[in-house]
Amino acid sequence: MQVSRKLFVAGAAALASAPLAATAQTQTTVRFADQIGSEVDYAAIWVAESLGYFKQAGITIHRDTYSNGPECLLHFANGEEDAMVGGFAPFIEAAARGTKFVMVMSVTKNNAPLVGPKEMDGYPSLNGKTVGSPGIGTVQDAILTYSQSKFNISFKRVFAKVTSFVPMMQNKEIDAFISWEPAAATAISQDSSLHYIAQNPPIPNAESLELIFSPQFVEQKKDVVRGFVKATLKGIDYIKSHSNADVAKIVAAKMNSNNIAMVETALKSVGLTDPHLDMPSCRILLKTLADSGKVPKEIAADPDGFIKHFLDYSFL
What we know:
Strand content: 15-25%
CATH class of the largest domain: Alpha Beta
Radius of gyration: 22 Å
Strand order of the largest sheet: 2-1-3-10-4-11
Distance between the termini: 54 Å
Number of helices: 15
Shape: globular
Structural class: alpha/beta
Number of strands: 11
Number of domains: 2
Order of helices and strands: HEHHEHEHEEEHEHEHEEHHHHEHHH
């Protein structure tokens, strides 16, 4: 009787541990590209990772960080990445050049804070100045282009990494800069002479960042893509139901930062809870890209039709 009981307990223990073992064996690694100093931008993803939602979906994120979206896309197009989050503008330009991808959801709106000295206020104050930009092809640079026509202003651009903007400001190489978060909030926290010239772009609810997967990965691992999107949606639900302070703690930990107040400030620059593209702003940005010669004019004539070629909401 005693032997039978021992066998029963041993068997029960083995059954109890089986799901954990199965989970560990079925974890799929997703090679994921993002940009330097961008943890606030993709807060839904990092919140979901921190809370274990990806692990529950059988996914491990292998993160590769690049200087900006266009650089990410080069590695993505070369087959080095399975997925990435990047800006609407570089995705449109890449699609126009023939790069293939499947866009499954939006992760961020706005996310183009303009920073400079406190005597500058609003986009019109850029007229005649030198402005730092994170690079040709970034959505932030597209916002600068749009602002020139909207406010009838002109200025000189200087391209650099977002982490270089503060020393460039201090060395008088630039008068202001546009960036993504939390790079902008970090700069303001480091230099008391700086502030947000404009914390949000001059396009309402401006589409900023989306999640894409390679067509090959989608074809071979649809369940993994679906699990990745569902985990991210759980991250969005957490952001919706919790305070900025709660979200900031998680994001700050991802950044290895103790400056939770700075992250809270940065979170005010971004919209993180709508997984669908904001089409009115997409049309404006696409027209801006066409008018500046970044994409063919005919694309701007039917922006919705062009976007439908690569947008797939079925995973939502």
